[in-house]
Specification:
Number of strands: 6
Oligomer: single chain
Number of helices: 11
Helix content: 55-70%
Strand content: 5-15%
Order of helices and strands: HHEHHHHEEHHEEHHEH
Structural class: alpha+beta
């Protein structure tokens, strides 16, 4: 019984090989057509380039700062110890993608017009709903049938849409061990992406500066009031340390240049496109062409066998 099964398997393999051999020119033809179509499709795509920026904290991290037993005394005296620059850097990371930063960037018309270039009418100098392509209309129609939901009502570009664009297109990663923050993205317009990243970095840093300067004077006055009323030498030492630290940060915030984060390297643009990957698309074209041709030959052979029987 086992020998008979092996014999049938051998016959099936021989038959398959025979089918493919007889249809070898058809397989070659269909694979070549698929390769040509893949090449044409590849030429229609606009290449994307990667842009990346590496950021580092301006101030040396002092997350391990420890006031020892004086910390408890400061707490008992109602003295608020300042957070480390590591905390500022973490907040900076979160702030980059907020609508508050997007609102500031939205004032830079050159960047916004290029991001929403399909909606900007240069002649009328207004944003308007872009015309839908045939493919877009078909997608909208299918979505309505399958989900029962209508397409979203058109909304002109605004800070909310810009914030959504930033969160979707820009990747962020934070190396806690090395204290590095990396921003990266792929775009068909790397120059626009570079300008957007620089704007995000500089505006976020500037916002931190302004907020700190507005709060620093109140903090220093608070500590000075505490030190004048303090009778403990230990309390006065703590307060003097805090005042010195606030004044150092205030000096840093008042000068030109970065306050929380500085660009360590970049923006760097990749030399070769990150997408499309030509070799992958062509390989898939050959694979699909081969599979399709083999499938057609098998179906054709099955139909012929059924007719003959």
């Amino acid at each position: 019984m086992q020998a008979n099964s092996d014999y049938n398997d051998e016959i099936d393999l021989k038959e398959l090989f025979s089918i493919f051999w007889r249809g070898k020119y058809f397989i070659m033809l269909l694979t070549t057509i698929a390769l040509i179509l893949g090449s044409i499709y590849l030429r229609t795509l606009t290449p994307k380039y990667g842009v990346s920026v590496l950021l580092a904290p301006v101030q040396e991290e002092q997350s391990s700062t420890n006031f020892g037993s004086l910390g408890n005394l400061a707490s008992m005296a109602g003295i608020s110890l300042p957070s480390s620059s590591a905390s500022d850097f973490s907040k900076y990371e979160l702030m980059l993608f907020t609508r508050e930063i997007a609102t500031i960037i939205f004032k830079e018309e050159n960047i916004v017009k290029k991001i929403f270039s399909e909606e900007w009418d240069e002649k009328k100098q207004i944003y308007q709903k872009p015309k839908r392509t045939q493919i877009g209309l078909v997608k909208s129609y299918l979505k309505k049938i399958l989900t029962g939901k209508l397409s979203k009502k058109y909304t002109k570009p605004n800070p909310a849409r810009l914030a959504e664009f930033i969160s979707k297109n820009i990747n962020i990663s934070y190396d806690k061990k090395k204290q590095y923050l990396s921003l990266s993205a792929d775009s068909t317009n790397p120059e626009l992406l570079t300008n957007l990243l620089i704007s995000m970095i500089s505006n976020t840093d500037q916002l931190f500066k302004e907020k700190f300067i507005n709060q620093a004077d109140d903090a220093v006055k608070f500590y000075q009031t505490k030190i004048s009323n303090s009778r403990s030498q230990e309390h006065r030492e703590i307060l003097a340390t805090l005042i010195a630290k606030e004044e150092r940060k205030l000096l840093l915030a008042s000068r030109d240049g970065p306050f929380v984060a500085e660009i360590l390297t970049g923006p760097n643009r990749t030399l070769d496109p990150t997408s499309p990957i030509a070799s992958l698309i062509l390989a898939l074209s050959i694979l699909l062409g081969g599979m399709l041709s083999v499938g057609i030959l098998l179906v054709r052979n099955s139909i012929l066998r059924s007719h003959n029987s």
